[in-house]
Amino acid sequence: SMPSEILLKIFSCLDAVSLLSVGCVNKLFYDLANDNGIWLKIYSSCLQPKRTIWKMKSEQTEAVPLGCAALHDKKPGYWKKEYILKQTAAVKTRVMRLAKPLDPYTGLPFKNKEAMKVSGLSWIIVLKDKNGKEHVMEKANLSFKDTSVTILWYSTNWPCLDIVSTLKLFGVTPLLLEQSRPPNKNGPRRRSLIAEYHLGNLTESSVAVGADRLVQLFSLNPGLLVGIWKEKNEIAFVMVSLHYHQLLERSILGSATVQYAPPPNKPVLDDIDPEYGLHDYSLHLEMHGRSCTYLRGTFRNLFCRKGDIANGYLRLTVVSLKDNRKHLPLIGTLGLSWETDVFKGNVKDCYVMNLTLLDEIGEPFWCFSAPVYMELSSKTSGFYDYMGHIYTTNYADSEGKVCVKLVWLEETKEYIIVNLVLYVSTKKVNNWYGTNY
């Protein structure tokens, strides 16, 4: 019953975040909170201290004077939209500036944590059931590694697994971020779709990674791990491993419905080298179980001979069976730790693999972070240097495959990687380098 003039006077005392929030109350508040006079005042005070405001049009900049024309010639909400666009663009610029300095070993930005903090970035998952109802899970535990972040969600309010149809992973950032104070969790936010997974018939469409006495783990690309209670056949937790490569872009630059698509690589044409695209690869590899790291290594000068191209793949041998000087021990007991509000556990013989393959100029060429498992081979090691059971780990996606062979040494209680081979899709190579293999 309060007159609109008084409401407008009250709204004029609010900051931008409060204005956006109050505009969600009802249609009247929404219309009043769009008032150009209020937003022009906010725009001019925050973005231009002088009596002019600057409006960006592509690469041109023009001064817009404060006055009646700036108010009455514009549709309601115009200056609100302009203010939001400028503020979000400023935050994205700061984030991308932090993401430019690269680690010489991984070829990835080494200020990822700072960039995430500046953007106010967090992640949520949205479970959609077969009736169309959405269940949003926000509370998450984060674990950072050299090249990835692992996010774990657990709750006592998961929807029944039988009725869940899809899971969507979103990056969430505040719509307006003020440097002087932390993000308001109840303030307006925007979502950027990172990945969508179909959970119908989960046990049939996914890969069974492992189990302990309480849960069974199922994996879906890219990087999703779902823990299911054995007795109740219900969701216990969800874990996602995200590789830093393009993590910020996909978490910030996408929309709520469409994933961010990175621009295609522009190849550096080489008319002299007959084996362009076949050599000078570098690999950074991590194997970890959320809290502990079993292996971290960098391998350079990887190459593929033309005779090793077969069945649509280039073969890059990282660790060879024949060269025992390069065989690698894994530190610690392999297993993937998990936890909920009440229970915790560790699933043996599975871990998270982070792979970063760089091209000859150090650009990230093939990157992933994914849960994998070790499978006991029916063969026993017949190697001269080792006697023990043989285990294999295999990973595959649309860009390539990874094949790892390990031997378990009972005497020292450790695994030794005796063979590690990457198979890179020729389609990926041809698109990246502009070649034809």
From TrEMBL:
Pfam families: F-box-like. Keywords: Signal. PROSITE patterns: FBOX. InterPro entries: F-box-like_dom_sf (IPR036047), F-box_dom (IPR001810). Residues 1-42 form the F-box domain. Residues 1-19 form the signal peptide. GO terms for cellular component: SCF ubiquitin ligase complex. This is FBX15 protein. The lineage of its organism: Eukaryota, Metazoa, Chordata, Craniata, Vertebrata.
